[in-house]
Amino acid sequence: MGMTSGVRGATAERVRMLPGDGVLALLRKGRVPGVVDLAAGTPEAPHPPAELVEAACAALRAGFNQYGDPAGYAGLRSQIAASLTTAADPDTEITVTVGATEAMAVALLSTVDPGDEVVVLEPCFDNFLGAVSLTGATPRFVRLHAPDWRFDPAELEAAFTPRTRAVIVNTPNNPTGRMFDEDELSLLAELCERWNATVISDEVYAAFAFDRPHLSVADVPSLRDRAIVIGSLSKSHAVSGWRIGYLRANAAMTDVLRRMHIAATGFAVSPLQQAVVSTGLLDRAAWDPAPELKGLRDRAVTMLTEAGLTCTAPEGGCYVLAGIRTVTELGSHRFAEQLLERRKVLVVPGTAFYGDAGHGDRFVRVAFNRQPHTLDEAAARLTREQVPVRVDSTPST
């Protein structure tokens, strides 16, 4: 028996159900000198707070190098709770996780069984689908419709069935930047009540709300006890490599989440938790990156519009989902490849954010959490002396 067939025979079905790495292959092609990367969400802006980096070094030297409380350092849980717009008990309702990726997996594994269904609002971050696959559940997609990226209430209602156990939302949304409003969340609350479902809300971009305040699902009284909220410091404090995330849920659900968290990873890294606690930078008065990101958003929207693409200014987050039909008839993956080949600018094909890839074929995602000079260079390459970017199916030269 050959190695390939032997591995295949030993592989679990859940692994075979995980999404492929087509987008990662494109990202790897762009990691070469001279390419302007507007694809990866890894923050170039804001810069990590200098005092946070120094505090991490100090925590290592001070001996915070061993196992900690699986629920997270008490001081960090208290600061996370204090940063929320609706009060949470840090002892019984907050759990520190190894980033938002672990938090999503823990939330789904704690609420969903094989054969259940999970309603997923799309376009969505592709890791959500990987986490659903791990549970053995089936995603049921509800589309957010361009240009304002709202769902059709009838389509949302039709997605719920007796097998629905959870709903995944993301506000501000990756990749559109849309933030859900009170009316939308109230309808979601009605449906979750009717079908006894849990809403799992990824709110990792809550610190980047530009034109109106961010509304958490936990801020909606009718949703609060049915909600699991996911947060992270990865983008807000530009420390994506630190992998510090958290879960917020009611006390009974938190007890379940913590048991699953212990089984999955045990605890988040000790010295980095201590570093965050010692700086107090979870307080918005001490650290507010939103004004900087709003300026970069405006810059990115102008850049894309002048290059001939179409987009709606995102309400939050750090991405724009731009329409490409005004400049090409190519699918988004081939368009992204040609943009990389001809202009040395890297973007993500919209196909990565849809269950049915064809629905994203007329979009690309652009990350704008970049330094101004990076966006300026991208704009120069895309417009080339005011000549809009236009690619077609002809061979590259």
Order of helices and strands: HHHEHHEHEHEEHEHEHEEHHHEHEEEH
Number of domains: 2
The largest β sheet comes out as:
8 strands, mixed
Gyration radius from CA atoms, angstroms? 21 Å
Please describe what this structure looks like.
The structure is a single chain. This protein has 397 residues and is of the alpha/beta class. The chain folds into 2 domains: 19-46 and 289-383, Aspartate Aminotransferase, domain 1 (Alpha-Beta Complex), CATH 3.90.1150.10; 50-279, Type I PLP-dependent aspartate aminotransferase-like (Major domain) (Aspartate Aminotransferase, domain 2, 3-Layer(aba) Sandwich), CATH 3.40.640. Helix content is 39%, strand content 15%. The protein contains 15 helices and 13 strands. The protein has helices at 3-10, 13-16, 22-30, 50-61, 74-83, 99-111, 127-135, 153-159, 182-195, 221-224, 251-264, 270-279, 290-306, 332-343, 372-383, and strands at 36-37, 94-98, 117-122, 138-145, 150-151, 164-170, 198-202, 227-232, 244-248, 319-323, 345-346, 348-349, 363-367. The strands form 3 sheets. Strands 2-9-8-7-6-3-4-5 form an 8-stranded mixed sheet, sandwiched between helices. Strand 6 (164-170), helix 9 and strand 7 (198-202) form a beta-alpha-beta unit. Mean pLDDT is 93; it is low at 1-5.
